[in-house]
Amino acid sequence: MLLKVNSFVDGTKQVFKLNGILDYSTVDTFDFFNKTKEFATELEVDFSELDFIDSTGIGAILSILHSASSLNAKVSFVGMSEDTKNLFETIGVFEIKKSLLGEG
Fold first, then answer.
1. How far apart are CA 97 and CA 88, in angstroms?
2. Strand partners, 77
3. What is the CATH number of domain 4-101?
4. Which residues of the chain form beta strands (DSSP E)?
């Protein structure tokens, strides 16, 4: 299965709903930078339909955090499976998020 990214705006929040696999073979599909609206003050990444993520996919998520930091935007992760949460905890994604954005 490939990756499908649905993006929509809700006020000043931009939502990225991930569906499929976010890995080395699909990460180019996740064109976050060109889809982000300049006025967005909050970015939400919805993992509820994500089947798999590897280190390349996590790199893409980290790039969102770095970009959000430069935009002074908040980032929220929703719909994460326990496996994805554990992976993010092990790698330190939540700590990086807290460090860059001052949020948990």
1. 10
2. 45
3. 3.30.750.24
4. 4-10, 13-22, 42-53, 74-78
Cα distance between the two ends of the chain: 32
Ordered by start, the domain boundaries in the chain are 4-101
Find residue 16's DSSP bridge partners.
7, 45
Pick the closest to residue 44 from 73, 71, 82 (CA basis).
Answer: 73
Tokens representing 38 are 């300049």
Per-residue pLDDT of the chain (104 residues; tens, 9 = 90+): 699 999 898 888 989 999 999 999 998 887 776 677 677 889 999 999 999 999 999 999 998 898 888 889 999 999 999 999 999 999 999 999 999 998 65
Whether the Cβ atoms of residue 7 and residue 14 lie closer than 8 Å to each other: yes
User: Are residues 64 and 33 in contact, defined by beta-carbon separation less than 8 angstroms?
Assistant: no
For the question of whether the overall pTM of this predicted structure is more than 0.85, the answer is yes
